[in-house]
Amino acid sequence: MGNLEIRDLNQSFSKDDGTRLVVLDHLNFEVRDKEFVCILGSSGCGKTTLLRLIAGLDEAQAGTIFLDGVEMKGTNPKVGMVFQEYSLFPWRTVIDNIAFGLEMQGMAKEERYRIAEHYLDLVSLTQFRDSYPSELSGGMRQRVAVARALALDPVLLLMDEPFGALDAQTRNMLQKELLDIWEKTRKTIVFITHSVDEAVFLSDRIIVLTPRPGRICRIFEVQLPRPRDRTSVEFAQVRREVLDLINLNCSIQ
Amino acid sequence: MGERRDRRIMGTRIQKNGKDRWLGALAILFALVIWEIVAAGIIRYPFILPAPTDVASAFVSLVHSGTIFLDLQASLVHFAIGLGAALLVGIPLGIAMGWSRRLDAFLDPLVELIRPIPPLAWIPFAIIWFGLTAWSAGFVIFIGAVFPIIINTYSGFRGVPRIFVEAGKMLGCTKSRDLIRYIAFPAALPSVAAGIRIATGVGWMCLVAAELFGVSNYGLGQKLWWFYNLHQMDSVVVYMIILGLIGLAFDMLFRYYIERYFLKWRTGEVA
Fold first, then answer.
1. Handedness of CA B60, B64, B65, B68 (dihedral sign)
2. Which sign, positive or negative, has the C-alpha torsion B169, B173, B174, B177?
3. Strand ordering across the sheet containing A70-71
4. Which chain B residues contact residue A94 at CB under 8 A?
5. Mean predicted confidence (pLDDT) in A69-78
6. Is residue A198 part of a domain?
7. Percent of chain A at pLDDT above 70?
8. Which domain holds residue A170?
């Protein structure tokens, strides 16, 4: 299972002049099991803050986060994360990066390599098993990062603009691959992006956040059947719909 | 950092090009010839400047008598004590200060206060505390070597990208001990190794000075001074060259083995 429930989530930081900057303001939403949800918003709308709270890397000022009905405190092996920046450990080979979480669980070498190789195969990087991250391209590194997060078999996968630093072609390819992986592994995915195109291509639902304070502006259901074709009329229509609504209601003041 | 990188660039350049290496050997040969001409042809007074040939024959007789090996052994023991203690104290201290802000605030003023005292200024207390033993030479070397290790370990830990620690936490590495062992230490290792390399150089310099004070009857630095008192300057030069060559050997060890190991995963990250 992977039911995520966000209740009354608040986060603010104190500024130098003594006032408080409200980043997230009474956020409420749910992500159903096996759902692919994109959180869409311009930079500074608190989407990374939100993801870090769900990940347990930061603590919320108020509000609760439930995973399958259980309140989450701190990091949790049931929740995997793929970061925006390159987060692979450069001193470990690809296979040892993927096996890291299993190693922390105290799993024997043979067993953890067997599992890691399965995920290495899933992201089609088998021939780079013993390479170091510095020898890989940006796209390959993010694929390894996905494999590393999946190796612990989390129910919820958090992705913080994971393809943001990649060129458009690599990005489109990785989006397709991610959908394949999602079909195969059936994880709940919460994916952060500022790209409408990416959100429409990937998600079942798009949660649009307004900036400062971060509130939910709209939630879209994307009904398009998969595989989606970026160049199709229907795709363009949904894209325009989302863009129009954002421009109308959710833009920066 | 800059100095270290420059030296590595020089190192790889010499390594890469065979012709350059011959040029270097040629320069050494040239210097030896000039030295021989000046010493044996112009000065003709071995006390002021012994000729390379005098030095070579002094070397042969020193090897025959065998004391040179006892000296080498004694010096290496002093050095091992000093550097070993510096590693045992410096690395944990650097880790503690780099990992915990409170320990840093607690220990930093103390470290900064003791650090500027030149290691050689500790020689009187070294002798009082440890007597004329290998431990007192080791202590002076320790003082010289421990600070570069502390400082580099500390800055290596401070420089660990937060993303690595967070990625580790997401993957179930949550205890401080595990985060240090599996994330922070490997991430800081190049900096720690650079500190050890600097410490090796400083420690080797302190060795000669510490041994000059006669902490034992053997030792490269001790013999250097002893032969000076006997006015056997050719033997003094032999010991100078041996000290230089061993210092070089330590540095090569780092350059060729340890840095090569890091280069495997650091290429593209530094350049």
1. positive
2. negative
3. A20-31, A4-14, A62-67, A70-71
4. none
5. 90
6. yes
7. 99
8. 4-78+156-249
Q: Do B172 and A152 touch (CB under 8 A)?
A: yes
Specify if A173 maps to a domain.
yes
Which tokens belong to A187? 């994880």
**C-alpha to C-alpha distance for A220 and B126, rounded to whole angstroms:** 76
Kindly give, in sequence order, each residue whose CB lies less than 8 Å from that of residue A117, ignoring residues fewer than 6 positions away: A95, A126, A129
**Measured between alpha carbons, how far is A20 from A11 in angstroms, rounded to an integer?**
10
Into how many domains does chain A fold?
A: 2
Closest CA to B67 of B215, B218, B245: B218
CA-CA distance, A77 to B172, in Å (whole number)?
6
Q: Distance between CA B29 and CA B27 in Å, rounded?
A: 5
Q: Is the pLDDT of residue B270 over 50?
A: no
d(CA B215, CA B220): 12
Judge whether B183 and B128 are in contact, CB under 8 Å: no
| A46: DSSP letter | S
CA distance A56 to A79: 9
Average pLDDT over every residue of B190-213: 91
Nearest chain B residue (CA) to A153: B171
Optimal mutation site among A119, A134, A152, interface B, most CBs of chain B within 10 A: A134
For residue B3, the one-letter residue type is: E
B72: helix, coil or strand? helix
Peptide bond connecting A77 to the previous residue in cis, omega within 30 degrees of 0: no
- Residue B66 DSSP SS3: coil
Chain A interface includes B182 (CB < 8 A): yes
| ipTM of predicted complex | 0.91
CATH class of B50-266: mainly alpha
Q: A177 and A74 share a domain?
A: yes
